[in-house]
Write a structure and sequence with these properties.
By secondary structure, the chain is an all-alpha fold. It contains eleven helices and no strands. The longest helix has 15 residues, at 188-202. The protein is globular and about 45 Å long. It binds fe (ii) ion.
Length: 207
C-alpha cells in the first residue's frame, strides 16, 4: 500500500501495531473520538487546544514542523497509560513522554522533541523569561509545580543544547496561545495531508 494519502480512520488500535499507512488515521481518530473531551481548567476542549495552536502557526506562516508539532504536542494526554490530566492531580502523568513514544517511530526528531519537551520548555521559559510566567493559565501554573517548577541553571544549560530548541520554544508559545474560547479552526483532516507528508519523508517514501 502506498502512503501518499491518509487512510480511513480505524477503530482503536494499539500503538505498537501502527505503521506509516495507519498512523495518520490513528491520530485523526483520536481527534474525532476524543478531541471533544474537556481540557479541565481551560476554556477549550483538548482537540480545540491542539487545533488552535496548529491553526495559529499556519496563519502566521510558520513552517510545517511547527504546525505539526503544535497539532500533536498533547497527543499523549490520550495515549498515556496514566490517563488524562485532572485539576485534582497531585502527581504528574508524563503525557509528554507518552506522546513522544507514539510519534518517534514516524516523525522527524524535531516533531517528537516538540512533544517530548513541551513541558520542559515551560520550565525553561519560567526560569529564563520572567514575563513568560504571566502567560500561563491557572491550570498550567498548577501543573508547573507537579512538573518540578522552573529549571535550575544546570537544567537550563542542558536544555539549551537541544538542536531543536527554537522549534520546541515556538510550539510552547503556541501551547499558551491555543486556549481561546470560541476560536474557529479547521478539523484535524485539514492538516492530515501535511502530517502524512512528514511521515512519508521520515519513513523514506519517495514524493
Ligand atoms: Fe498543550
Amino acid at each position: 500500500m502506498t502512503s501518499s494519502q491518509p487512510q480511513p480512520a480505524p477503530t482503536h488500535v494499539p500503538p505498537a501495531t501502527l505503521d506509516r499507512d495507519t498512523i495518520v488515521a490513528f491520530l485523526g481518530s483520536i481527534f474525532d473520538r476524543r478531541g471533544g473531551e474537556e481540557y479541565l481548567g481551560e476554556p477549550v476542549t483538548m482537540g480545540e487546544h491542539m487545533l488552535q495552536g496548529a491553526t495559529i502557526a499556519e496563519q502566521n506562516g510558520q513552517p510545517e514542523e511547527i504546525i505539526v508539532g503544535a497539532l500533536l504536542h498533547d497527543i499523549g494526554h490520550f495515549t498515556s497509560e496514566f490517563g488524562t490530566y485532572h485539576p485534582d492531580d497531585t502527581e504528574d502523568r508524563h503525557h509528554e513522554d507518552a506522546g513522544a513514544e507514539v510519534l518517534e517511530r514516524f516523525f522527524p526528531s524535531v516533531i517528537t522533541d516538540c512533544c517530548r519537551y513541551h513541558v520542559a520548555a515551560k520550565r525553561y521559559l519560567c526560569a529564563t523569561k520572567p514575563e513568560y510566567f504571566k502567560r500561563l493559565s491557572p491550570a498550567s501554573v498548577h501543573t508547573l509545580e507537579l512538573q518540578g517548577g522552573p529549571m535550575n541553571p544546570e537544567e537550563v544549560a542542558e536544555f539549551e543544547a537541544n538542536p531543536n530548541l527554537k522549534e520546541i520554544i515556538a510550539v510552547r508559545y503556541l501551547d499558551e496561545a491555543g486556549k481561546r474560547a470560541g476560536m474557529e479552526t479547521p478539523d484535524f483532516w485539514h492538516f492530515a495531508p501535511m502530517v502524512q507528508r512528514m511521515v512519508d519523508r521520515h519513513c523514506g517514501v519517495p514524493d
